Amino acid sequence: MEDIAEAVIERALSLGAEFADLRIESVSGVNILVMDGKTKTVTAHIEKGCGIRSFVSGGWGFAVCNGFDTSELMKAAEVSVRLAKVCKEKAKLDFKIESTPSIRKNVRYSCRTAPSTVAVADKLSFVLGLDKSMSSHDERIISRSARYDDLEGDRIIANSFGTLVKTRETWTLASCAAWGKSDGIVQRGHGAVGNVGGFELMGTDAAANCGKEAAEQAIRLLDSKPVPAGKFTCVLDNKMTGLLAHEAFGHACEADAILAGASVLEGMEGKEVAHETVTLVDDPTVTDTFGYFPNDWEGVESKKHVLIQDGVLNEFLHNLETSSRMGTTPNGAARSDSYASPPIVRMSNTYIGPGDMKKDELIGDLKEGLLIKGGQYGYVEPAKGQFMFKCDEAYHIKNGVVGQRYRDAILTGLIQEVLKDVTGIADDFELVDPGYCGKSGQDARTTDGGPHIRVENVVVGGLA
């Protein structure tokens, strides 16, 4: 396939493309969903095809071929060039894709038990076991959802700069959600385990206990009081710190948002955006994580992105287009969810770096505040600088003692202010929250985390 890939690139160049690239992919996987003891879906998907991009003076053309027939690939290359020339006429900016070093390598993700060698019946049995662990936990659990995903795939990335990267990718993920009900109150608990690698990951204690932990959390929340509203000093646990890093700052640091005028961090490079103790990182090179990848989907070597260094905004996440337009070096942050979608700027493993305090110090120094544990979801408006997070659990802190447990806590704030109010960072760093990040209709594997951190002036509200 390598020879075909390079021939297709040459065809696009011969028709007038200034730059061209392609991704040839062949993937297979299984998705299983069990709800309330019933198997809702067992889906095996097999996909193969090619996405071809051509660039001409500010205009992109993208064409998809569902298969590997050489003549069809050549036709797709021709279509992509025609589309790029049409877009060139409408493009508001005339720029060039700056050349990058040629990379030629083969990559294979670590995998001991290929998911394709495991019978679907065994995968379904695993998911049904997760469901049973939730249903048997407490009679107040009224609904459950257990999910399993796996993927094995081969990808070839080639471009007109001479890059040719072959990747063998394997990953698995299991997630659970449990809903408890008592006295008219409904609460949700959840958990997820995911990583690059094979089915061996589903044999870990973390995977086996995923359902039980979701059910336990739902029941704890039923036995909790509604959170009081107000402005608090909050100690955020590892998961909430990761959600804050990803949602509040990560999306605002994506360079396509910067160029679109959709981020409050536009023009802020080199300026203070956080307390001097804060370093915020996005790092796809961390191998034992769900967000790992060694080369991005444009073939660029992945690297550790230090978005905030000692409180100062240091860099943005880039693909080839954004780096070319902003006069910097591409840093390996381009991904797509399949060959049928163009690569866009995405996060990977996003976290706040560790500090030198102990978690007990963050709490012990606090006269009154809240301990925030876990996050269910978050929303951010990078253009306005606003964020909102739904927490899993909150606990009252009085004179350094953790007490009353609360439910339905919502944190809101401003991107430009929240990290400036950090007053302590613990040394208990963890990457703990694997999942999917959605953007522009595409999903990407990510992991979030960090240490416990203490933040002042956090606006907390509750759900009615």
What does this structure look like?
There is one protein chain. By secondary structure, this protein is of the alpha+beta class. It folds into 2 domains: 222 residues, PmbA/TldD fold (2-Layer Sandwich), CATH 3.30.2290.10; 237 residues, no CATH class. It is 22% helix and 43% strand. It contains 10 helices and 23 strands. A hairpin with a 2-residue loop joins β17 and β18. The N and C termini lie far apart (58 Å).
Distance between the termini: 58 Å
Largest sheet: 7 strands, mixed
Q: Number of domains in the coordinates?
A: 2
Number of strands: 23
Indicate the structural class. Answer: alpha+beta
Q: Which value, in Å, is the CA radius of gyration?
A: 23 Å
Query: Which residues form runs of ≥5 with pLDDT under 50?
Result: none
Helix segment tally: 10
- Global outline: globular
